[in-house]
Amino acid sequence: MENSELKNEQARVDEVTAKISRKILATQEEFNKAHQEITKVQKDYSNNTSVNYFEVDDRMETSAELQQQRNLVTRLSENENIIKRQLGTYNTLKPSPYFGRIDIQDEGELDEEQLYIGTASFVDDSGEFLIYDWRAPISSIYYNGVLGKASYQTPNGAQKTELKKKRQFKIIDGQIKNMFDTNETIGDEMLQDALSNQNDEYMQNIVATIQSEQNDIIRDTYHDLLVVQGVAGSGKTSAILQRIAFLLYHSRDTLEADQIILFSPNKLFSHYISEVLPSLGERNMRQVTFNEFMANRLQGVHVQSLFDRYENDRQNNDFNPNIRDLKESGQFIDNLITYCNQLEASELAFVDIYFNGRVFFSKEEIRTTFEKQPRNLKIYDRFLQTKNALIKILKHRIELETKADWVNEEIDQLSEERYHDLVMDKELGEFQDEEVERHYIAKILVTERLRQVYDAIFNGNFFDPYIQYNHFLNHYSLPAAIDPKQWQLTIEHFNQQVEFHQMDLEDVAPFMYLRDYCLDDGKNVSMKYLFIDEMQDYSIAQLKYLKYAFPETKWTLLGDSEQALFKAVEAPESLLTRLDQAIDSKHSKLIKLLKSYRSTYQITTFVKSILPKNNEIEAFNRQGVQPELLITSNLDQGFKSLLETIDKQADHNENIAILTKNMTEAELIYNRIHRQTQATLLKDADRTLPKGVVILPIYLAKGLEFDSVIAWDVSKQNYPTDDLLGTLYTIMTRAMHQLTMISINEVSPLITRHSETLNNLIITRKIN
């Protein structure tokens, strides 16, 4: 590119950064003023709340003043936060104001427009757009368009235009380090530069490298079920986070970050992606693992995690996969709903409501109340009517109790301050006489005393879902593939688990569905978007429960069927069909991401070789070293080779991950090498990803990537059959730059069965 062109572009960068700098100074001054103002109001508020008042008229006047000040504090806080976010955006833009430029000529216009694309919009004092937000409708041309005819959305519909030029920049600290024109979506040069960097503790925000197929995911606002099946390293997670940022921008008047929930595969992953949205100027969405979500809903019960089950399964061959498949099926949930709707009052697991050690409402009284409700209602409506009837009875008993001796005694002993607190909400002169006022206070005191009874009714504590679920299991019509004796053993196991306040993962979704469906509880109707990462690890029963829990949400699910660690691989198309039926979507779409960007060409090409021949993975042409396979004769030699590999790679890799099949292997390695390497053993409870050498089982590395990966013991003994292919594939695809495999004795047939091409793809060394 001509030197004069570069000078012109650098001059523009200088001009824009100078304007941003001036904006930063002005906004900082504005922020300081807003902060001083809120500090002053808070101080006045604090002084007023310390006023000692007992007279009713003083109390009413002061209360009004305090409410005014509370409202003022709220408004000022909101204003301060807005200014603070603006300041953060300007500070982010200053060192690298934009990354792209498009020259377009709209249909019917004589002049071309030059538009610069960055992570946020920037408008100068005259109102001119110097930078367009990457999420703006017109910016879609940068990601999707090639030179020539194009279009973009406007409030009046699609606008036809012609894309005359597409230019890409790398700007660091206000200086253009690289600049080139391209006809591609994003040129290889830009991608190569971004992907060659060392892996960080956090996922990087690289909106400059969004590909056309990723852009389709990011900007989709039509489908209520979007399923993204992407090969390892295809940018699924990055696209989904950028989709969340786009949705917050696109629907900024109607959508808040708190109305979006993302189900992450583990806590490490949650930490890893936690900085992407803030770097784009957005607040983080709610983020939770499925186990955390369920454990929070089952307070006091230890919910088995997917990882606990994985470890237990490998040590226990007694479990019946047919029973697990049944409990995790959509049909099981459908049958459970039918069961609930057909329950008679005599079959419901009602329990007594106690107060002060005695029965306040007996289960017989509750059952009779339930029986009186119209039989044509759904069970949750009959429960609601029962709650209302019980509360009506409770209010009557409260009225009777106001005349009890203990109430009069308590009123006589009230302090003056407590007395005034009780009547604070009443207007002066509202009480006709002392008796009316006394009755008013008595009713408050009795209501407070019986609050726990009201709460028990409101929360449905007169219904025992554990007994009811047990009843459901005992009356379930079993398919022929399941032995009734084995089924009874699982029921006994469930009851034993309940005694110890524990629950297996396969029972959690159906149990929660029964409890919440009967009581019409557990729904969050304010949530608008739900995202699930590693969707292949979820059962249909779990997904149906999540759809019940978040009924108003649009769904985006992403995963890779080849990374199915916990169950059999399923074709994306058949999975979409099952999901359509399970969550009753109206508009669904499947998008496949087939090009892998994470790993070097050499690593991706080798990984492809261990998969079935019809796999669709496309390797991105980023060159690196060939993967290495070390075959050792015994365990001690394996550990020696492991230490030598770490020593050799430590200087040029910021993080090295030793990935294992399970936690037992990870702990074994840690105990043998941590003193020599200062390695860190990561467990399910860990939330941060340290630098250096880390050791972890593969299920905790889902969604993560590392500069170098050492796959431990890829031997025939450790990986004998095809059901472990997903595990091996997932381990290998965590590597960005280097992949080393260590085998104790004979190598797994999953690696060697294509030996005719293997020698060209990896370096093999036998170590005696």
Q: Could you characterize what this model shows?
A:
47% of the residues lie in helices and 18% in strands. It has 768 residues and is an alpha/beta fold.
What value does the Rg take, in angstroms?
32 Å
Largest sheet: 7 strands, mixed
Number of helix segments? 29
* Termini gap: 56 Å
Please bin the fraction of helical residues: 40-55%
Q: Report the portion of residues in β strands.
A: 15-25%
Notable characteristics:
seven-stranded parallel β-sheet; 47% helix; 768 residues; alpha/beta; 26 strands; 18% strand
Topology of this protein?
Blueprint: H1 3-49, H2 56-93, E1 100-106, E2 113-118, E3 122-123, E4 129-133, H3 140-144, E5 148-154, E6 157-172, E7 175-181, H4 188-195, H5 212-218, E8 225-230, H6 236-250, E9 260-264, H7 267-272, H8 276-279, E10 286-289, H9 290-297, E11 302-303, H10 306-315, H11 321-327, H12 330-341, E12 353-355, E13 358-361, H13 363-371, H14 379-401, H15 405-412, H16 416-422, H17 434-449, H18 451-458, H19 465-474, H20 484-499, E14 502-503, H21 505-519, E15 529-533, H22 540-549, E16 554-559, H23 572-583, E17 588-593, E18 595-596, H24 601-610, E19 618-619, E20 628-632, H25 635-649, E21 655-660, H26 663-677, E22 680-681, E23 692-697, E24 706-711, H27 725-732, E25 735-744, H28 749-752, H29 755-761, E26 763-767
Parallel strand pairs: 2-4, 8-16, 8-17, 9-10, 9-15, 11-14, 15-16, 18-19, 20-25, 20-26, 21-23, 21-24, 22-23, 24-25
Antiparallel strand pairs: 1-2, 1-6, 3-4, 5-6, 6-7, 12-13
Helix pairs in contact: 1-2, 5-6, 12-21, 12-22, 14-18, 15-17, 19-20, 19-21, 21-22, 22-23, 25-26
